[in-house]
Specification:
It contains four helices and no strands. It is an all-alpha fold and 115 residues long. The protein has a domain of 76 residues.
């Protein structure tokens, strides 16, 4: 089956729904199944945590270096400074993600207003 296999109006939506579910939820269920049996400090769980962290870092790096939309109109230096400010705020305020995100947004918006 392909995205354009059927000519019904609902087919692309069903295709996206099923393909999206298969690509993500199956792996989540397997992770819950196998993760519940493994010790938190086991080598496998530590490796999986490292890979997940690396993937998140890669997505953030891609958004900073190759942005799209309105973020593409900002300078690279401003995006890097905002990201660094958010990370420093995250570390200073007992590792609270919301504080890091808010600090990065404040720096980004201030840079846009001043620039």
């Amino acid at each position: 089956m392909t995205f354009t296999a059927l000519q019904y109006w609902w087919w692309p939506y069903l295709f996206i729904l099923v393909a999206g579910w298969l690509a993500t939820d199956v792996w989540r269920y397997l992770g819950v199944y196998f993760g519940g049996r493994a010790a938190e400090n086991s080598d496998v769980i530590v490796f999986i945590r490292c890979v997940a962290t690396a993937l998140v870092a890669a997505v953030i790096g891609n958004l900073v270096v190759f942005p799209s939309g309105a973020l593409a109109d900002t300078s690279l230096i401003l995006r890097i400074v905002a990201m660094a400010a958010g990370f420093v705020a995250y570390l200073l305020v007992q590792r609270r993600i919301v504080v890091g995100i808010a600090a990065a947004e404040v720096v980004l918006f201030a840079g846009l207003l001043l620039g």
